[in-house]
Design goal:
This protein is 48% helix and 14% strand. The chain is an alpha/beta fold and 330 residues long. Bound molecules: hypoxanthine (HPA) and zinc ion (ZN). Zinc ion binds at residues 9, 11, 161, 189, 212, 270.
């Protein structure tokens, strides 16, 4: 069993494996433009973030009912548990579903059918983070937050994802202010393909507590110093960065330099069905490609629980942290 860890950067729609996509397509009478899972897998060659997003949104067509979202989440939780995930903060993209006529209740209630008994069934505690699509309008984000109001007891926070360049954080100032007023935690993708200034803006304008990806902070020593000083967690996704060509090969990933700089880094899977691995696979990959030793791996696991939104249950955080310290590498 892989070291105990929290997964803090995981898009539930990005856990849709080809086999489940075809199963749901059949169940719902949806036609996919691929003959079979082999042909679909051949489409998993991405040039950049946008080329991935095109397929990611296309395959979502198979997700229609509460049961579909329940099956999707249960499949993820079983795989995550098998790779040492003890706590998962799960992103979902409601605008991508609302646009297809699937309402907020279907998505949240469906996911909740799996999340509600995840601890008993999988041994994984969970939270939900609602993401706004940054290539949609600010008005659409506000409408989405409004549609989520009946479900806020099931949603810990808000995030910002989809195509980054050209959609700076400031575009979403108003909806983040509204989310904060509702008591929601705030995170945002920044510095994946976008410049370091987007990270600064996410902190200053949106008031985010964690940065998703954030690896381009390394271009600004001043920003790195700030992130270190303020202990801002970065949710890195190494296999995603290789597949979306943010880094050429895993051996070039800046993770070791980021840890050496004192940044509070975590390792996550992003869209594991598309990028070649779940949380434990990402840990294994960085260990092999970057030569990270046991203490570095333990630091990454520890960081994941330090950065988790567990303020309502510090006893649980302490329990998870003691599991990390007690873990013996095989
Ligand atoms: N980046 C931005 N948006 C996303 C991603 C990602 O890696 N995955 C799903 N939506
Ligand atoms: Zn992401």
């Amino acid at each position: 069993m892989s070291i105990p860890k929290a997964e803090l950067h995981l898009h539930i729609e990005g856990t849709l494996e080809p086999e489940l996509a075809f199963e749901l397509a059949t169940r719902n009478g949806v036609e996919l433009p691929y003959a079979d899972t082999d042909e679909l897998r051949k489409a998993y060659r991405f040039e950049d973030l946008q080329s991935f997003l095109n397929l990611y949104y296309e395959l979502m067509a198979v997700l229609r009912t509460e049961r579909d979202f329940e099956d999707l989440a249960n499949a993820y939780l079983a795989r995550a548990a098998a790779q040492g995930v003890r706590h998962a903060e799960i992103f979902f993209d409601p605008q991508a579903h609302l646009a297809r006529g699937v309402d907020m209740g279907t998505v949240v209630e469906g996911l909740w059918r799996a999340l509600g008994d995840s601890e008993a069934r999988h041994g994984v505690s969970t939270q939900l983070i609602l993401c706004f699509l940054r290539d949609e309008s600010a008005e659409s984000a506000l409408e989405t937050l409004d549609a989520a109001k009946p479900y806020l007891d099931r949603i810990v926070g808000v995030g910002l994802d989809s195509a980054e360049v050209g959609h700076p954080p400031v575009k979403f100032r108003e909806v983040y202010e509204a989310a904060a007023a509702l008591g929601l935690r705030r995170v945002a993708h920044a510095g994946e393909e976008g410049p370091p200034s987007y990270i600064v803006e996410a902190l200053d304008v949106l008031g985010v507590e964690r940065i998703d990806h954030g690896l381009r902070c390394m271009e600004s020593p001043e920003l790195v110093a700030r992130l270190v000083r303020d202990r801002i967690p970065l949710t890195l996704c190494p296999l995603s960065n290789v597949r979306l060509r943010t880094v050429d090969v895993l051996g070039d990933h800046p993770l070791p330099a980021m840890l050496d700089a004192g940044l509070l880094c975590t390792v996550n899977s992003d869209d594991p069905a598309y990028f070649g691995g779940y949380a434990g696979d990402n840990f294994d990959a960085v260990r092999l490609a970057l030569g990270l030793g046991e203490e570095r791996l333990r630091e990454l696991a520890r960081n994941s629980f330090v950065a988790a939104f567990l303020e309502h249950d510090e006893e649980r955080r302490a329990r998870y942290l003691s599991e990390v310290e007690a873990y013996e590498f095989g």
